[in-house]
Amino acid sequence: MDNNQxxxxxxxxxxxxxxxxxxxxxxxxxxxxxxxxxxxxxxHIQVPTYFAVEEPDxxxxxxxxxxxxxxxSDVIRQSRVDENGERTWW
Length: 90
What we know:
Radius of gyration: 17 Å
Oligomer: single chain
Largest sheet: 2 strands, antiparallel
Structural class: alpha+beta
């Protein structure tokens, strides 16, 4: 198998599930869509491939919707909205 074949993604993989090159910036990853199509009701659905989260040190990090699903769930569980609609973190 040559190098080109090794780098090829399996055809059965959903293009939105492909993990981006690690050299991509968070901004570039945030632009990737896992789903960008109409659903059965005709509404147009867009689902990001990466979810951007802010680290405690203030740095932004991109989490892949499949590979980092557990960490995304942890982040969501940590967030809360107060009575004024403001997001608070535990």
